[in-house]
Design brief:
globular; alpha+beta; four-stranded antiparallel β-sheet; Arc Repressor Mutant, subunit A
């Protein structure tokens, strides 16, 4: 096992504590950077305990810290900037014994790109999306459907849903046309398979810090 593997193992081991794991979930589900007061309130624990677990998650590389004044005031009397937490961009994965699935995925994506076989990938991705169990279809299930596939959906008004996480982020950075197109095809298939495609549509809508696809009402 490499030093990087051990670091990833330490990071994931930090989530074995129940309160710390819940604190991470509160931050991960937030619409933006989250303060310790929000975490403390969500978990029903004191501010000091919340800050302790949040800082442990920062030390493990699972969260990142920023500072901002939550009141919106500036200048004298505005108070000190609040310490805010958000999910770190770094990814952590451990396999025992070591497996190189990421390397294999990168090789396959590069081969598809060079062969010009993207359309075949998109058809397969859409079929895969249709086969994903969706439960009882309905408007309330759209976010659950997307959350179940790791997209971390966040409503942006009543008619639009942003996807704060790309499950294939590292591949999308290296092969954006291939992987973003695959995301679009798979989400289109998810909506169709759940019987939601008469009300919702997936669209390419790239922006920094989130998935390249959004979902909007028709």
């Amino acid at each position: 096992m490499t030093t990087e593997d051990l670091h990833d193992l330490d990071a994931l081991a930090s989530l074995t504590d129940r309160v710390r794991r819940q604190a991470y979930q509160v931050v991960a589900e937030g619409a933006g950077p989250v303060g310790r007061d929000e975490v403390a309130e969500a978990l029903g624990v004191g501010r000091t305990l919340a800050a302790f677990h949040l800082d442990k998650l920062v030390a493990a590389g699972l969260l990142e810290v920023s500072y901002a004044r939550r009141s919106g005031k500036t200048g004298p009397g505005a108070g000190r900037p609040a310490k805010l937490y958000q999910v770190a961009e770094a990814e952590h994965a451990v396999s025992v014994p070591p497996r190189a699935y990421q390397a294999a995925a990168e090789l396959l994506a590069e081969a598809l790109e060079q062969a010009g076989a993207e359309e075949t990938l998109y058809r397969v991705a859409q079929r895969h999306g249709r086969r994903v169990p969706a439960g009882a279809a309905g408007e309330a299930d759209v976010t659950q459907l997307l959350a179940g596939q790791g997209y971390a959906p966040a409503p942006d008004g009543p008619d639009r849903i942003e996807l704060r996480n790309c499950p294939f982020h590292r591949l999308a950075e290296r092969f954006p046309p291939v992987i973003c197109g695959m995301n679009l095809a798979m989400i289109t298939g998810l909506l169709a398979g759940a019987g939601l495609d008469d009300r919702w549509a997936a669209r390419m809508d790239a922006a920094p810090g989130r998935c390249c696809v959004t979902v909007s009402k028709k």
